[in-house]
Amino acid sequence: MAFDTLGLKGDLDDVELLMDIESAFGIHIANDEAARLFTVGDIYTLLQNKLSSTKEADKCATAMTFYRLRSALAAFGVDKKLITPTTPVRDMSTLKAADFFKQLKSRTQMTMPRPQASWRGILGNSSALFGVISFFYCLFLPAAQNFWPPSAILFVSGILLCRADQGKLPENFTLAELSQKVAGMNAGKLITEGAKPSDDYLWQALMVVLTEHSALPPSEITPSTALLVKQR
């Protein structure tokens, strides 16, 4: 089953998406081009037009990424013979997730994904949200006006927990999956360096970017999927 929209509301979240697409693919989307983007298929066609190359590019972007990650991981002291596509990423470093990706970014000069929120991040987000909600109750409900100090404490505690969160690596997340994700986030760089901008690669890379802005999994996104929620 495919959904008919990514769920963007048009309150600058669409602008953030286009900025991330520009960054990932190394392109510039002019205002008049952006005004003609209504569906995922529109973005895909734009990428095809901008990144179609006349050069004989034949390298596999995912393979290029895998070998760069493999070299970077070897610098951590991991035996290269043990670094295979099916190796779980968690098994290759004792670093916290945020530090792990920071080191990989430094060694590969490639954009890395954000780690998943750990219990600190989840608790922090919930605490900050409840703090904001309870603060508005204090503003509009006279009986709750004395509860603004706990609201402030909840909010500040939540922010501090979020900042302290080093994140975590997903369970059973393999090096092959990390390579695919990083290849999608660095499509423009890899194409410049000789990766083949095939239709399949451009679509997969686009899915990596879109799923950072939408709750839809790639399997539920089609060319006809609209970017914005339909206004009623």
What structural category characterises the helix and strand content? mainly alpha
State the end-to-end distance: 23 Å
Helix tally?
10
Percent of sequence in beta strands: under 5%
- SSE run: EHHHHHHHHHHE
Total strands: the figure is 2
Structurally, the number of domains stands at 3
Q: What is the residue-mean pLDDT, rounded to a whole number?
A: 84
The share of residues in helices is 40-55%
Describe it.
The model has no long low-confidence stretch (mean pLDDT 84). The protein is mainly α and 232 residues long. 53% of the residues lie in helices and 3% in strands. The two termini are 23 Å apart.
Q: What keyword list fits this structure?
A:
two-stranded parallel ribbon, 2 strands, 10 helices, single chain, flat, mainly alpha, 3 domains, 232 residues
Please specify the SSE layout and strand pairing.
Blueprint: E1 5-8, H1 13-25, H2 31-34, H3 40-51, H4 61-74, H5 97-108, H6 119-140, H7 148-164, H8 175-185, H9 187-192, H10 199-210, E2 226-228
Parallel strand pairs: 1-2
Helix pairs in contact: 1-10, 4-5, 4-8, 6-7, 8-10
